[in-house]
Amino acid sequence: MRTREIKVFFATDIHGSDRCFRKFVNAGKFYGADVLIMGGDITGKMLVPIVESTGGRYRSHVFGRDREVGAEGLPALRKLIADAGFYAYDTTPDEIAEFRERPQLVEDTFRKHMHQTLSAWMSLAEERLAGTGIMCLLAPGNDDPLFVDDVLGASDMLINPEGRLVELPGGFTMISVGYSNPTPWDSPRELPEEQLAERIDREAAKVPDMSKAIFNLHVPPKDTPIDQAMLLDEEFRPVMRSGSPVIAGVGSRAVRSAITTYQPLLALHGHIHESRGEASIGGSRSINPGSEYSEGVLRGALLTLSTRKGLRGYQLVAG
User: Which InterPro entries match (predicted)?
Assistant: First the structure.
């Protein structure tokens, strides 16, 4: 059989950054990739109001400071907010007062903008990737609300890999679990370690050949170079020891156990933005490309897979 090489571009944790998503879609052509994989935490974290004031002026609070622009500055302000991973929302002082009285209205508005933005992104991806032959997978992560699955599943071209075995070019297969072990933030997709292990086992049972399997597990394996982060207390403040923040492994025991047991060719992770790098567990390679979404920087991993030799190599990239 003739050897074939497959190039995969993997990125994760863009958290609503419009700039990062556009870079992700363009990465296929830029890197000559056959497959694009977004590993989870696609959606943004909050609405940022742009409040209309007197005299045709508009005010917003972005990156810790107040900003005021005229009508001509609105497009740039909206772009600044969107590129940083937030949802710009044009509003009025009266509506802001109503939001304070009706918290559910804030949640409904936030959800609406999340849905609209994700749908627009999917249309953009379909348009840019049509006719290229590039396969594109968009997976949810622990920060993505459950309704996101329905949005991602609405496309005939883009693939939501959560809960299914996906056949990649070259005979490689991939399973995905976007859930995490418990975090301090009580995000939408969290499970106790035992339940997370059961979910991974259920997906792993679908894999025909572990030597050609990719495990897209959003949370990294515990106590490895790719799960290191500051510990936080109940008030979300850094835990300090001898004047320095305590750094520890905050990944998942279930994920580490699954990789140890099943020994897939490759495991792809995100979740811990600051823990960019790789780890080896037995014969399996785990990779976390990290994230700098708030700066508009797309971090990723460019993987080269060989139908004969498995993982030929990888490169951590940013742009």
Answer: Metallo-depent_PP-like
Residue 188 CA from chain centroid, whole number: 14
pLDDT in tens, 181-190: 999 999 999 9
CA distance linking residue 82 with residue 88, whole number of Å: 6
What the block records as the tokens of 111 is: 């959800």
**pTM for this structure?**
0.95
Residues 128 and 56 grouped into a single domain: no
Phi (first) and psi of residue 259, to 5 degrees: -65, -40
Q: Is 82 found in the same domain as 126?
A: no
pLDDT tens-place string over residues 155-196:
999 999 999 999 999 999 999 999 999 999 999 999 999 999
Kindly report the number of other CB atoms within 10 A of residue 54's CB atom: 6
CATH of the domain at 282: 3.60.21.10
Assess whether 216 and 139 both reside in one domain.
yes
